[in-house]
Automatic annotation (TrEMBL):
InterPro entries: LRR_dom_sf. Transmembrane segments: none annotated. This is Distal membrane-arm assembly complex protein 2. Signal peptide: none annotated. GO terms for cellular component: mitochondrion; SCF ubiquitin ligase complex. SUPFAM superfamilies: RNI-like. One of its GO terms (biological process) is SCF-dependent proteasomal ubiquitin-dependent protein catabolic process. Required for the assembly of the mitochondrial NADH:ubiquinone oxidoreductase complex (complex I). Involved in the assembly of the distal region of complex I. Belongs to the ATP synthase subunit s family. Interacts with incompletely assembled mitochondrial NADH:ubiquinone oxidoreductase complex (complex I).
Amino acid sequence: MWNGTRGIHRLGGAVVPEGNQKKERKMLQFLNNHFYDVEALRGYLLQREMSKVHLKNRSFTWLEEQHGPYSAGAFFILKQGGAVKFRDKEWIRPDKYGHFSPEFWNFREVPVEAVDASDCEINYEGLDNLLLLKELQSLSLQRCPHVDDWCLSRLYPLADSLQELSLAGCPRVSERGLACLHHLQNLRRLDISDLPAVSNPGLTQILVEEMLPNCQVVGVDWAEGLKLGPEEQPQDTASPVPA
């Protein structure tokens, strides 16, 4: 007759075969190596990407001594993939391969009046090159992934000349950065559309308009973020009027 207690005892004290132990250790080692490699790869790719951004934003101020501030600033923007317009000249843009006409080196004494840096990887450090353009009137920083509140705090040297500024689609720009624009009293048009870091677009637009009374602030519905939810709507407590 089978002894149930004895059988249970034997099962409880059973030893895992050596082959299974090897498979288990091999699987654990594989998982450990796999996830370590993934994290290491992610870290490497992130570091590589940041190094590329840093390289793109290195200082070109040394060019100022040879070619003047306008050409040096224009070179930085063109290398970023943006476009520049010298006064009374046509726009200069890179082609799909990143090549652009070298004619701008001849415009040493001609101010740059407009810059389209949309989708460029300009960051805080790279602004050293942009701020060489002291007579800049129009600046587009649309969808620049590295333009943040700290960057906006550095635009005050352009206060005397800048009239148009677009920050549309900049993911790192918040209310704090927009508050730094109070220096730019000559602004006539400011685009603050599609700023995900701005928590209350409608209220922000009102505050910016008060801060820059001579500027047309576009891109936001003034009522956005100000509308009351159903539970906040005022209730009509008056007695119904008899028919």
